[in-house]
Amino acid sequence: MTRFILAVAVLVATSVAIDLGADETFGWDARVNCAAVDAHVAGLDPYYVKNLKDTKLSYPYLPVTLDAFRPLCAGGVLVAHYKPIFLVLALICALLLPGLGKSRGGMQDVAPRIVFALGGFLGFEWIIATGNFAILSGLFTAASLALLLRPAQSDGGGASIAPQLAGAALLGLVTSFKLVFFPVLAALYFLPLPRGRKFLLIAVAAAMFALPILASLAIYPDLFKSWLSAIFGQIPGQHAPGNEVNPSLLFMSLTLADRVGLAGSKPVVAVFYGLIAVALVLAPLAVSVWRMVKAQGLAVNTSLLRAFDDWLMRNPEAAMRITVLAMYALYLCAPRLKEYAFFEVALYAAILVPALPATMMAAVLAIAVAIPTLASVSGIAFMGGFGQLAIALICFWLLLPREPSGEATPQAI
């Protein structure tokens, strides 16, 4: 395993080196975002592309983000040097990620996490190519997971809830950055906590999700209207983020509906979307979790939900693993999943990979990192198709627990 991980690491490092030295005409998202900040500072409406310098793309984020991004874009440093900056941020993401299980030690966990963060599903490669600020949401995601999964790293069941509240708040902010990922907050229910605490965490996360939206509406009402118009393609003659083609399950359902001549029927597309999401993601997760719970038996004279809550409390490590898998699953089910968004999917997977048995770890690293990275280095672009989604789905299926306890013992690397 050490040799295999080293070989994959060399491959990923080669890919990153190629990306860092690629044509500087890339990085359009960083330029668009900072051009929007500059337009806002100049008193112009940044949601009209005509007000953005040297770009034909529109600014997709909430109005309050214009103030948040202003320090990042000051002086043009980020636009000029975003590649090494984003690489450092990606490494920080990998180092922030928590571990699961009792048998963890040093580089045996850190190495696979770094490899997965930089090479998993080609997500980071797309961030480097586009300069997208998904690297920032990834940073907040990693920090929130480090706080939320903290109880799994100690045996004290009465740990303070303050770190988890902070983690839930950060996760809520992350989902407000990309609104379509809001359902990920529901995964907090799988944490090994009393039901009241779990609902409190979900409420805090939901409140933080809503806060930037409400703040944008209150502070910048005119810009908020412009943002809605830009998102829904109501500003004529300019790029609309909502109309972009992306490798999501929704786009897969649109493709399937088009094959049968029903692409114009929204109800049909919605049904296909739901069936595909259930069949490929949600049902496998539910069956896997149910098998784990059923294998240990349920309490008599107790509701199914209460028995499940008790099981989560009795098996905190398995509960943490289920929580991360649920976030992974809900992220994959999002109706809009851009190529660079797979960086966050890779972060979820990076938490789970080090706890796998050696053979399974090798399979996941090969499918999710080595094969797509080798294809990319060879000049095969994963663009406009379902390649990234397919390898993320296969990786998800491999990560589903198969042992009755749900807690596989990691092999020595």
What does this structure look like?
With 413 residues, the chain is mainly α. It has 17 helices and no strands. It has helices at 2-20, 28-41, 64-73, 77-96, 107-119, 123-130, 134-148, 162-177, 195-219, 221-231, 249-259, 266-295, 304-314, 316-332, 342-352, 358-377, 387-399. Helix 6 packs antiparallel against helix 15 (342-352), helix 8 crosses helix 9 and helix 15 packs parallel to helix 17. The longest helix is centred in the C-terminal third of the chain and has 30 residues, at 266-295. It is globular and about 65 Å long. The model is unreliable at 152-157 and 405-413 (pLDDT under 50).
Characterize this entry briefly.
This protein is mainly α. 64% of the residues lie in helices and 0% in strands.
Spans of at least 5 consecutive residues whose pLDDT stays below 50 are 152-157, 405-413
Q: Proportion of β residues? A: under 5%
Question: What is the general shape?
Answer: globular
Q: What's the Cα radius of gyration? A: 21 Å
Share of helical residues? 55-70%
Mean pLDDT over the full residue set? 89
Major sheet, described briefly? none
Number of H- or I-type helical stretches? 17
Order of helices and strands: HHHHHHHHHHHHHHHHH
Main structural class: mainly alpha
Distance between the termini: 5 Å
The total count of strands amounts to 0
> Which assembly state applies to the chains in this document?
single chain
